[in-house]
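Morning run. Coffee first, then this:
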Amino acid sequence: MIVDVVTTKSPKNRTVLTFLLALANLMSFSVGIITAAILSRYMDVVEYGTYRQVIFIYTTLLVVFSMGLPKCYSYFLARAPIEYGADIVKLLNKLFFVLSALFSIFLYLGADFISDIMGNELLVDNLRYFAITPMLLMPVMGVESILVVYGYGAMVLLYVFAGRLMMIVCTVMSVVVFDGGVTGAICGFVVSSAFSSIAGLWLSYWPFKRVTSYKSNIRIGDIMSYSFPVMMQGIYGFFIGASSLFFVSRYFGVEEFALFSNGYKELPFLSMVIGATSGVIFPEFSRMSGNGDDKRNFVALWRTVWYKSSTIIYPLSVFCLIFAGDIMAFIYGENYRSAAFLFIIVSVIGIVRVVAYSPIMLSLGLGREFANTHLVAAIMILALDVLCVNFFPNIIAIAMIATCCTVFCLFVMLITIAKSLESSLFKLIPLGAMSKILFASIISCLMARFLVHITGITNVLAVLAIGGVVYALIYFPFVSRLGVGYIDIIKPMLDIFANKFKTESSRQLMEESK
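And here it is:
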């Protein structure tokens, strides 16, 4: 039964699996927002900035130390029979144990060096408390990909929910209840990571519990050969993602870093939707490439994913752009309302980054082009940031540089994909539908903003709640008149859930009749 799920994934099943994965990502990003919202209120700016710096250091260095291996789970498992899956997972987990140990040692021994670079003495002890985290979390980085490949979307949802709930409890309680400050938050993070590690290692082998396993012919050399371009992109991506925060931390201080790290953050649901679609279409593109499918099939799937993603991302992106100030004040407090302009700048990326580009590029053998494009973007950002801090030091300018270079990188990759598929940008992207969605979103949201404004409501929660409801009431009828049907997107999920309900009801009736 598992093999059927893997090899014959219908568009309806893809939609449902994407929906479940999107919910899991929503939980993950919601926890990040909730934790940040609480900690920023119960910690002073310096302590909160230090906590954010520790997480920033971990997430950026993780890209380098993971060496592109997380993507190997989806790539190799999708191409191999399930009987070889356990051996592939075991091999990848061994590599992660080694890399995570090196990462932990680097954090512990290099705490002083990193502290000097970041210009914050509080980082030394807190990085050492945090140093065990890579050994806990890196070996389970592939668990969600493993479960998605074999169709266990509900299990992903349960795993993410339990792990993120534990993170909230441990991290927040350490600060709010026990008044542990930044060190308490770090220790709470480590404790929650231990629980996630135990559960993740167990779930990594869940799909193979009723399968007779055999040794695969995949070797470390095969894995490294595939992951090398991804690793290089990760290194370049490290500079792309870290340079702005590094320059702000180094040249503008901890307080400005706290403002920048809260404001210049891509929309949470953007990563949620893109991560969900990436987790589902990566194995699909890998299978299509392995089977030698016609390039038109790649274009058709890409257009479908782009269209469905834009129906979710564009309306929410526009709402966040127009209500940016209220969103910042609601999440982080009035002290961070000034971060709204940074939030608006980074939100522009969402208009271009509708779909993850890596799955299709890696499946088409464009790993080198994928890495080189990020290399160019990294060089551009570093050079422009250096000029910025020396000649016109301003965190708004830093944000503008990062956004422009990222959009440039995405546009170049889009052209590369179009050339590889022997297509054009107009055929690769559903421009007509995208324009309708974007137009309806802007007009509807501006009307909602105006209606809320004339009521004189100033409470942040009320503004967002009423504005959101009014926006939805205007948007959905408007976009429907333009020919964009949300029913076509929701119906596959409802059909599958209804069929499962009927099957379960029939089974229960049969048991009762017996």
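The mean pLDDT is 78. Good start to the day.
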